[in-house]
Amino acid sequence: MTNDGTRPGQSRERWGSRAGFLFAAIGSAIGLGNIWRFPAVAYQNGGGAFLLPYLIALLTAGLPLLILTYTVGRKYRKSPPAAYREMAKPAQFIGWWQVAICFVIATYYAVILAWGVRYIGFSFGEQWGDDPEAFLFGDFLQASETPGEIGGYVGGVFWPLLAIWVVVLIILALGVRRGIEKANLFFIPSLVAFFLVLVIRALTLDGAGTGLDALFSPDWSALGQGSVWIAAYGQIFFSLSVGFGIMVTYASYLGRRSDLSGSALVAGFANSSFEILAGIGVFATLGFMAHTEGVPVDEVAADGLGLAFVAFPTVISSMPAGWLFGLLFFLSLVIAGFTSLVSIVQVIVASVQDRTGMKRVPAVIVVGGLTAVVSIALFASDSGVHFLDAADHFINQYGIAMAALVFVVVVAWLLRRLPDLQAHANETSAVRLGQWWLVCLGIITPLVLGWMMVDSLRAEFEENYEGYSTDFLVTYGWGVAGGALVVGILISLIPWRSDGTSLSGGPGAPGDGATTDSRKGRR
């Protein structure tokens, strides 16, 4: 056995156990959006009634798409570009598009973790003072008044961001089994333990019941609104890490006899359970904040950066032993984001390995190093928060969701590979896939994703996102999302190796995307 978990002559690494894969998959799915996006989305779209479309979205789109990505990864045992190329040579552009999306997300995702690291320290002594919002954008981030103009770098962001990248690259350099798997086996149980303690403490606060009533009281009339159903499907797509190649990559390290549908069910329901737990903790805390300030919950409800770095510090300053609550919250935030960041960068590293034949450590140094440099250069600056806001919005709406739509349409409609992939999954899965899986992926998922795109574009052209100037959005919003697609297409046009060596660097495997005779008959 080699240091990276492979055997001599074996061309691809393997997970050490099914639990290792599941923890890694769950770690990728559970991220910042579970904590600061789901509670607000549920609250704004019918409260307790939202759980019905959310569950339907999970069953009809989230889990089928998750199983599909697992199946593609395990069947072809390659990263997204190489796996899609196995299905059809032109389809590889979707994989490189997803790699470009991962590159963009990784560059700004890491800086949020750096902020979280600093806020762990700020919790001691509640250093944000009486105005957490002014502290965040002024004292800490030193945000520039003109978005897009870099006037200098913020040392308080630079150093923790550098540290985050060093740790991420070390874990990736250690390999799938010794690095990613062991890290997730430690971090995910720790995350659940820390967050459970945080939720229990939140439930003991005055006003917690009011906050939970605000979240879970059902507004059944909301189910008649199309926007609520779009929000439910959108939350599922963005939460499960299915639109940008992560699960294809992770599944490529599975053994040939691994259970696919059963693993998807475990990962999917674990992710949704954590989202509901996060909703309970967040709204119990917001209920306390509303009780303390003597205002309705809807006046303090927030999401995203405002929830994590403004609302929660305000709560922490108002409660007994607030520093401990802050420590648990920001530690949970960093851990949840960190496991997701590792999975995002792994997609880029694995794709470059498969494309060039590079060994893991050189690939991590080159690819991870480049990603880290871009991340620090842009997001450690005084305009970093503006770059982050625009890039995050547009790469999510017109990168992840659009790539998922194109992937499903190509596989289901153009290549018509769903029956073949269904048979492959059923060979080793505890839960067999039936006609419902074909209907969900062939009809429901593409229609919902397509409608999401239309609805999102309509809203986009009605007014500029967050009031930013058109020039800024064209460059750092539309430009980033469109650039990811262009990069994906251009890379796919570069000729592949045809010398008969493995794309992943192993001996004896077919080159140029071909399959040997012994593998043609295997699903």
UniProtKB/TrEMBL annotation:
Primary localization: membrane
One GO CC annotation, please? Answer: membrane
Pfam families in the record: SNF
Keyword annotations for this protein, in alphabetical order, are: Membrane, Transmembrane, Transmembrane helix, Transport
Query: What is its membrane topology?
Result: Multi-pass membrane protein
Location(s) in or outside the cell: Membrane
- Does the keyword Transport feature in the UniProt annotation? yes
Give the residue ranges for region: Disordered: 502-523
Give TM regions.
Answer: 21-39, 51-72, 93-117, 157-176, 183-203, 228-253, 265-290, 323-349, 361-380, 395-415, 436-454, 474-494
Carries keyword Membrane? yes
NCBIfam families reported in the protein's UniProt record: Na_transp (NF037979)
Q: What is this protein called?
A: Transporter
Please tell me the species this chain comes from. Streptomyces oceani
